[in-house]
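#help-structures
NK: newbie question, is this the right format to request a structure? protein is Small ribosomal subunit protein uS10 domain-containing protein
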Amino acid sequence: MNFLQKFTPKITRLIKFQYVNPFSSGSLYEPDYLEGMKSKVPLYDTLNIELRGYDYPILESYQKYLNKLITNMDITVEDAWATPAQDLQLTTYKPNSELVNTQYKLRKYHRTLQITDISSLQLPMLLRVLESSTPPGVTIKVLPHEDDHEEVRYVPDSELLQLKHELDELGGPSKKK
């Protein structure tokens, strides 16, 4: 007997076999078929695909194409909306001066597709398709959905906001007793 064998404790392994019914969910209060309906692949929560571009017809047709593509991939398109256009004015100046060379008026359009229950296997394929099929001048962002994203789509009523401001200047709403 060598030195290591003398001082090494003997390790015994206990192997326990237990029968598990593959059709049982293991829950006393839940039916067994609910466990079978759950996805074996992890699912993402709600995602927003934001499309931005300066050319309205191209952006609209690309949104329509993506909507059909995503639906054909068996991904749920929960909602789609347009955000009001953003007006931009660009000015270029003559070299080494403050004289205006040209002025451009641009409109930036914004569309959003909201998708739900996309599996972790489908998302990389969708991202590759988005990357390869994006037309020139269109930018895409894929973001997790937040409540702020939905608030942007509504146009504020300027008259209502002005009336509320005037009411606050007069002391706020009157309280009836």
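mod (FA): yep, format's fine, and the tokens are attached above. The longest strand covers residues 76-93.
NK: thank you!
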